[in-house]
């Protein structure tokens, strides 16, 4: 069962007083302990009500009311969502809330979250169940698994530096806990590599020679934050590689280019800028075409 731990606002949070390093450390360790126990689902702090607004409805007509709001005790400063086996377990975790928060005077409210099993079956519930089932089919990450002809280690180190990521796993065939079925000359090659880019990642390996095929029929697409970053990434990938389409302004982007890098991986680099391109109606995409 899920519970939401609601951290109530106080004069400090409403004044936008930021937490110190000790509280950040204590909250981080608290969340880490819950994550290690498998009960942590999500959690975040909220900015003061001065940065928010309310929407009141009268006879279906909305009225927007900007913050700040006076009744501090009724406001929320943050929340943590946990998934535990019982109400008693939830209470035990809440009791461990860091004492450094508000000098030991924080006020928490805990509410149990509804589950689908709490509602009466019917057409209305079926809409939510269908949505939940559809969202459950979505992968956590979608991306190509890159295969190299013996250059995976160099390529991933290059990509990590180019894209501001980090290579957090790299195993050779020789380090595999099970026989990999490759020759002695391939033991030092990469069986699996993982490159983290924030909440995204790339994976790849050195494909054994009898399985390797030069990549074709796809491109790794990079959506860059600025024209300068697009130009920088394109130039780095083009060095020692083959330019398919020079970096230039197009009808769909301020900067776009296509290149095959020196490791034989094809890339598309894109910076849309303020170019207005007709896009599918996202509201309509939730209908029959999206099923």
Description of the molecule:
The protein has helices spanning 11-14, 21-36, 87-95, 123-136, 152-163, 227-238; strands at residues 2-8, 40-45, 53-58, 61-66, 76-83, 108-112, 145-148, 166-172, 190-197, 200-206, 220-223, 242-248, 255-260, 266-271. It has 291 residues and is an alpha+beta fold. The strands form 4 sheets. It has a 4-stranded antiparallel β-sheet, with helices on one face. A 4-stranded mixed β-sheet has the order 7-10-9-8, covered by helices on one side. A hairpin with a 5-residue loop joins strand 13 (255-260) and strand 14 (266-271). It starts with a strand and ends in a 20-residue tail after the last strand. Mean pLDDT is 92; it is low at 283-291.
Please summarize what this structure is.
This protein is α+β, with helices and mostly antiparallel strands and 291 residues long.
Helical proportion? Answer: 10-25%
The counted number of beta strands is 14
Q: List segments where confidence is low: pLDDT < 50 over at least 5 consecutive residues.
A: 283-291
The assigned structural class equals alpha+beta
Strand content: 25-35%
What is the number of helical segments per DSSP (H or I, 4+ residues)? 6
Whole-Å distance between the termini?
30 Å
Question: How would a textbook summarize the main sheet?
Answer: 4 strands, antiparallel
Using only C-alpha atoms, the radius of gyration works out to 26 Å
N to C succession of SSEs: EHHEEEEHEHEHEEEEHEEE
Mean pLDDT: 92
- The side-by-side strand order for the widest beta sheet comes to 2-5-1-6
Describe the global form: extended
């Amino acid at each position: 069962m899920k519970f939401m731990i609601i951290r109530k606002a106080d004069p400090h949070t409403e004044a936008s007083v930021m937490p110190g390093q000790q509280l950040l450390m204590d909250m981080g360790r608290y969340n880490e302990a819950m994550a290690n126990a498998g009960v942590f689902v999500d959690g975040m702090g909220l900015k003061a009500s001065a940065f928010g607004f309310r929407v009141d409805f009268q006879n279906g007509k909305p009225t927007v009311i900007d913050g700040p709001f006076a009744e501090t005790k009724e406001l929320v400063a943050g929340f943590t969502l946990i998934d535990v086996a019982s109400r008693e377990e939830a209470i035990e975790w809440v009791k461990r809330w860091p004492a450094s928060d508000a000098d030991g005077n924080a006020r928490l409210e805990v509410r149990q979250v509804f589950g689908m099993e709490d509602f009466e079956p019917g057409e209305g519930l079926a809409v939510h169940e269908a949505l939940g089932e559809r969202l459950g089919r979505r992968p956590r990450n979608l991306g190509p698994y890159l295969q190299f002809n013996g250059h995976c280690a160099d390529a991933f180190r290059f990509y990590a530096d180019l894209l501001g990521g980090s290579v957090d796993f790299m195993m050779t065939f020789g380090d595999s806990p099970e026989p990999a079925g490759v020759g002695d000359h391939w033991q030092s090659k990469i069986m699996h590599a993982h490159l983290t880019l924030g909440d995204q990642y790339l994976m790849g390996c050195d494909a054994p020679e009898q399985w390797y095929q030069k990549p074709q029929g796809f491109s790794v697409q990079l959506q860059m934050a600025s024209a300068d970053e697009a130009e920088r990434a394109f130039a780095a990938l083009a060095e020692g590689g083959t330019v398919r389409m020079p970096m230039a302004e197009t009808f769909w982007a301020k900067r776009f280019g296509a290149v095959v890098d020196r490791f034989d991986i094809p890339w598309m680099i894109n910076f849309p800028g303020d170019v207005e391109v007709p896009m599918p109606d996202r509201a309509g995409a939730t209908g029959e075409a999206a099923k």
